[in-house]
Design brief:
The protein has a two-stranded antiparallel sheet with strand order 1-2. The protein is built from 11 helices and 2 strands; from the N terminus they run ααααααααβαααβ. The chain is globular and about 75 Å long. It has 275 residues and is mainly alpha-helical. The chain folds into 2 domains: 130 residues, no CATH class; 80 residues, no CATH class. The structure holds zinc ion (ZN). Zinc ion binds next to α2 and α4.
Length: 275
């Protein structure tokens, strides 16, 4: 049930490391169900699966060899004991990090920075030296990775315990309950969302301003663009779709209550909107 995006384990407490595969990739019915309940599937096709696996392999190598204890590792990536924040604030296009998973993921935590660096290093036919030639900080991380993995090739992992992490047969809840629990988690929406809605829609006018102009409720637009917005938000900020969807639905509800509209003429023929 582990999510491939999350760290596999917190190093100090765990002695066995494994790569968790999301259960919804195990069967097409589950994949369809996940798409329906969450709205988006990550890591679905071969290219994406390999991209995630390379990242997760970075975590495994880190924990198995306890690289995070090395001074050089800490110098490159920072301390692994830094708090792991789900709501991180990346600097888009930062040249200090490699780019691999969506959402500037390397900026989430030193452990993710390492895993992303490892993934780039491991990508077949990628000339990372050329790609990062003008990004000295990111290149130094890749060089550390190259140097370290070369040494590791002749050494056994420090951690070799292979105890089962979790027995699937012992799970006491159903798939349906799993999704219900996800949806029922308390969400503290940020304050000021009404102000954001106003900033987006107010200039487009009130329904009574131009009686001859066809208008639709703003909530309809937000709901229609839900899937695209979730994918784009994930790509550009790393905010997970399952967290974005409740926010968008809340925004749509607020738009109904605060009565925002948009002119249909601003909607482009391909279904997207210029708003
Ligand atoms: Zn990770």
């Amino acid at each position: 049930m582990n999510d491939v995006k999350k760290p596999i384990a917190t190093p100090p407490q765990k002695s066995t490391f494994a790569i968790g595969i999301p259960f919804y990739l195990a069967h097409p019915d589950l994949t369809d169900l996940h798409a329906e309940r969450i709205g988006i599937i990550e890591g679905f096709n071969r290219v994406e699966v390999l991209r995630y696996l390379r990242h997760e392999m970075g975590h495994v190598v880190n924990y198995a060899y306890r690289l995070y204890e090395q001074e050089a590792w800490v110098k490159c990536f920072g301390s692994i004991t830094q708090p792991y924040l789900e709501e991180y604030r990346p600097v888009p296009f930062s040249r200090r990090y490699v780019r691999h998973l969506p959402g500037w993921y390397a900026q989430k935590h030193p452990d993710e920075d390492w895993a992303e660096t490892f993934a780039i290093w491991m990508t077949p036919n990628l000339d990372w030296r050329a790609e990062y030639a003008d990004r000295p900080t990111a290149l130094a991380k890749l060089n550390y990775c190259e140097k370290t993995t070369t040494v590791l090739a002749d050494h056994e992992p420090v951690t070799t315990v292979t105890e089962l992490d979790e027995e699937v047969g012992e799970l006491t809840y159903s798939v349906d309950q799993y999704y219900k629990n996800l949806a029922s988690g308390e969400i503290n929406f940020p304050v000021g969302l009404d102000g954001s809605l106003r900033a987006i829609f107010e200039d487009l006018g009130n329904p009574e301003d131009h009686v001859n102009v066809s208008r639709k409720p703003a909530s309809a637009l937000i709901r229609r663009l839900e899937r695209d917005l979730m994918a784009n938000v994930f790509r550009w900020t790393g905010h997970f779709p399952e967290r974005t969807r409740p926010l968008l639905r809340h925004l749509a509800d607020r738009a109904d209550l605060t009565i925002h509209f948009y002119p249909i003429s601003r909607t482009q023929p391909n279904g997207s909107s210029s708003i």
